[in-house]
Amino acid sequence: MYSASIAHRRYAFDGLATRCRAVAAVIAARFAACVVAVLLAVAARADDAFPTRVIRVIVPYPAGGIVDLMTRVVAARLAEVWGQPIVIEDKPGANGNIAFEQAARAAPDGYTWVYAGPAMMANPRLYGGTLPWSEKSFAGVGVIAWAPATLVVHPDVAPDVAALVTRARRAPGELNVANVGVGSSTHLNTAIFLNGQRLAMTEIAYKGQPPAIHDLLANRIHVMVASVGLVADHVRSRALHGLAVIGPARSPLLPEVPTFAEAGYPEANLVPWYGLAAPAGIAPAIQARIVEAINRAVAEPTVRAQLARLGVEPAAPMDRDDIARRIAADTERYAGVIRASNIRLSD
C-alpha cells in the first residue's frame, strides 16, 4: 500500500509538472509574439515618422558645380516639406571614390545619401574591381534629372552624324576628339559612339569641359560630346554645329538638333542621369518614403523650372524597382564600353 501510494503521488506530480511546462511554453510563446508585435509597431512608427533629424547628402564634386547645385535645389524643397535640415557635404577627389566610400560605410538608416550617377556605376569597372565599394553598396532613392549631352563639331567638320562617320572612316586619326575626364559620362558616351561605328580619332585630354569648348570654337579640336547647357548658346549662334543629342527626347535648349536615335544611331543614346542613393540595407519602408518625397519634389513646377535653368531635364517619377532596374541596365552598358575600350584607372 505504501509503495503504491508513493507511486501514485509521483505520477500525479509528474503530470502536474508536465502541465505546468506546457502552460509556461504557451505563455513564453505569447510573450515573444507580443514583443515582436511591439517591435514591429515601433519600427513602423519610426518609418512613418522619418525623418526625425538632420540628413546629410554627400556630393563627390566641388561646390558650385552642376551636381552640387541640382542636389541643393531638391534638398531645399525636401527640407521644407519634412521640416528637417538636409546638409550638403561636398567631398571631391579621387574621381568621386572618396565620397562613395564614405557613404558606403554609413549606417543604412536613411540619414545618409550620396549622389548617384554614371560614376557610381562606372568607377568599380574603371578601377578593375579594386575599390572597397560598388553600385551594389547602394540602394537608389531617387532619379532627379536626365543630363542630356550633345555631339558638337566645329562648323567646318561635318553637317550631320552620317557625314562625320564617313569623314572619320576615310581618314582615321585625322580628327581630334576631346576627353574631359577619363570615366566621365561624356568620355564614355564618346567611346560608345566611336566603338559602335568603329571610328578612330585622336583623343585630346582636358581638365573639364570649358577649355575643350574653347579649343573647339577655335577649331583646334574637331569633335566633342558636351553638356547641352554649356554649348547651346554656341550652337544657336552657329559658332558650333550640333549633330545629335544624347537624351530621351530633343532638348528644349536645342529643339532643332535630333537625338542620336532620330539620327539613326540609337546605340549611342546612353543618357546620363542624376539622382540619389542610400547605403544598401536601408529599410524598404524608409526607402519608399524617400523615393516618394523626391518624386513629388521634382514634379513641382518651381523645382522643375530651377532644374531646367541648370540645363538638365527633370525626370518622370520612378519607384524603387524602376531605379534598381535603371542602375543595373546602365551598369552593364558602362561595363561594356569600358571593356571594349580597355579603359583603366588606378586607385
Structural description of this entry:
By secondary structure, this protein is α/β, with parallel strands linked by helices. It folds into 3 domains: 1-40; 57-146 and 281-341, D-Maltodextrin-Binding Protein, domain 2; 149-268, Periplasmic binding protein-like II (D-Maltodextrin-Binding Protein, domain 2, 3-Layer(aba) Sandwich), CATH 3.40.190.10. Helices cover 50% and strands 16% of the residues. It contains 12 helices and 11 strands. The chain has helices at 2-49, 66-82, 97-105, 118-126, 161-170, 185-197, 209-217, 228-236, 260-263, 284-299, 301-309, 320-341; strands spanning 55-59, 86-90, 112-116, 138-146, 149-153, 176-179, 202-205, 223-227, 241-246, 273-279, 313-314. It has a 6-stranded mixed beta sheet with strand order 2-1-3-10-4-11, with helices on both faces. It has a 3-stranded antiparallel beta sheet with strand order 8-5-9, with helices on both faces. Strands 6-7 form a two-stranded parallel sheet. Helix 6 links the parallel strand 6 (176-179) and strand 7. Helix 4 runs parallel beside helix 12 and helix 6 (185-197) packs across helix 12 (320-341). The longest helix has 48 residues, at 2-49. The chain is globular. The N and C termini lie far apart (90 Å). The model is unreliable at 35-44 (pLDDT under 50).
